[in-house]
Amino acid sequence: MFNGNILRDAIISAANNIANQQKQVDELNVFPVPDGDTGTNMSMTLSNAARELSRINGETAEKVSAVTASALLRGARGNSGVITSLLFRGFANGFKGYENVEPENLKNAFLFGVEAAYKAVMKPTEGTILTVARVASEYATEAYENGLDTLGVFEKALEGAKKALDETPEILPVLKKAGVVDAGGKGFVVILEGMLSVFKDGKIIESSMSNTSSNEAESEISRNAAAEFEGEITFTYCTEFIVNREADNENQPADLRAYLETIGDCVVVVDDEEIIKVHVHTDHPGNAIEKALTFGQLVHLKIENMRDQHERAKHDSDNAAKKPAQNSTRTETFTPAEKTNPVGFVSVCAGDGLAALFKDLAVDTIVSGGQTMNPSTDDILRAIESTPAETVFVLPNNKNIIMAAEQAIPLSTRKVIVIHSRTIPQGIAAMLSFDPKSEDKDNAINMAEACEKISSGSITFAARDSDFDGHKIKKGELLCMNNGKIAFVDTDIEESVSKLVKVMLKRDSEFLTVIYGEDISDEQAEKIEADLNAKYGDKVEITMINGGQPIYYFFLSVE
Length: 559
Description:
The chain is of the alpha+beta class and 559 residues long. Helices cover 44% and strands 19% of the residues. The chain has helices at residues 4-20, 22-26, 38-53, 61-75, 78-94, 103-120, 129-145, 150-171, 173-178, 183-201, 253-263, 285-292, 352-360, 377-385, 402-407, 424-433, 440-453, 493-504, 522-536; strands at residues 214-215, 237-245, 264-271, 275-282, 296-305, 324-325, 341-349, 365-368, 389-395, 415-418, 455-461, 466-468, 471-473, 478-482, 485-490, 511-516, 541-546, 554-558. A six-stranded mixed beta sheet has the order 15-14-11-18-16-17. It has a four-stranded antiparallel beta sheet with strand order 3-4-2-5. Helix 13 (352-360) links the parallel strand 7 (341-349) and strand 8. Mean pLDDT is 85; it is low at 210-231 and 309-333.
C-alpha cells in the first residue's frame, strides 16, 4: 500500500511528466487548425493540482485525492483537461475514507473515474482517452481479483492503458490514416507513467521546463473524448438542469437516469452529495422535469429546440498551437462582486477589438482566451463571480471551452447559464438576441437559437502538414473554414476572403460581417472591404470590424 505522501508525490510526478511530454502529445493532433492542443491543456490542468499538493504534507490518501480533484476541477482547460479532472474525481471517490492506497480502493478509483468521465460526455466516442481509461480500469479490476498488491494493480492498469492506446487507430480511421494514436489517450498514459515512477521506484520525475509556461491550446472533436452530439435529431428538446439534492431524499440518481433513458437519448446524469446535473434529449421535457422534482429543487434550467438549429458541421479534428501562453498562478484573495443587477454577461475572446465589441454589446466581464488560449474553469468562475449580477450568462465562443465553463456552474454563488456559442460570430449573435424584458429561460432559448442561425466562417493557417477530409494541406497554407469544416485551402489572403464569402452566402442572406485580426493591416482590410462591396454589395449589407484577434486572420458571419 501507499500512504498519502507517496500518492501526493506520484501526482506531482505525473504533472511533471505530462509537462515534459506535452509537445509530443500535441503533435498527435490530426486536425491542422491551431485551436489548442491536448497535451498542453492536460499539462496545465495537472500543474494546478501539483501546486496545491506541494503545500501539504503528512495527509491521508483521502485528503490528497480530494485536494487533487478540487484543484483539477478548477484548473481544467479544454475538453481533455475536463475529462482528466473527472478521471481524478473518481480517484477521490475511490480513496474516500481511506488513509492509504490499497489494492481494493485503487481498483475502485479507476472504476469510479471511468464512470464519471463517461457520464459527463454527451456522446462518448471510443478510440479516445475514454477507451484508454476504461481498459485500464478493467485491467486493474482483474489484477485485484487475482490478488495482486497495490503496485501490481497499478502496473496492470498501465499495461491495459498502453494496450488500448495502441489500438485506438483501429477504432478511429482518422487516426490510422494519420499514423498516430489518440492524443488524449497518450496523455493519460503519460500521466500514469509519471505516477508509476513514484509507486515503483520512489522517484519523482523532475520537470524539464524552466517555468510553468506552455504552448496553449487544446483539441477535442469527435475522435477525442469530448465528442459533441452529431447525426440525425431523434428527439426535439435538449433539456438541462441541476437538482439540488434534499438531505433526506433517498431516491437514487441511477433511477433518474434509467427513467430519462426511456423518454430520450444522450442522457448525462452526474451527481455528488449535493447536486445532480442532468442532460437529456427528449420530446417531453416536462416529464423529465417532473421526475427530477422528486429528487429536489431544480436550478439552471435550460431547454433548446434542436430541430430549429442548423445541422452541425462534422468535425474529425484535433488542433495545434501557434503561440505560447503563461499558465497563471493565483495566490491573491478574491472577493466576489455584489449582485447589484438581475442579469450579467461573461464572454471569452482574444483581441482588444473583440473585447471592446462585446463590451459595447453589454458584456460585463471579458475572459481573455479562445483559440490556443483555453481558459480554465477557475478563470471562468472568477469572471462569473466578478460580474455584479444574480444571473450570469456565459459565452464560451469556442467549442473547446464549453465543458470548462459548465464545470463552473455548481461552483458559483450565482445562477449561471452557459450558452453553447462555438464561435465568435455566434457569441455576438447571442448578445444581440438578448431581451432584458424576457425571462432567463426564454433568453437562454433565444440566444441558443441565434447561435445556430448564424453561419460562421474563419480563415487561419495550417499548423502542420496534413491530409484531412479530402484536402492535401501544407503547413502555413490558409485554411478557410465554413461552420467548422474546411471549405478550401488557399495561399492568397485577400482572394481567400472573397472566395469564402461566396461559399457562405445563401439566396436569403442579408448581412455579412468580417472581423479582421491583428495580422491584417487597416489598409488590407480597406482593400478587402472594397472588393467585397464590389462583388456582393448589392446582395448583402457588409460590415468590417477590427477585432485584433490573434491566430485567426478573419472571422466571418452571414445571416
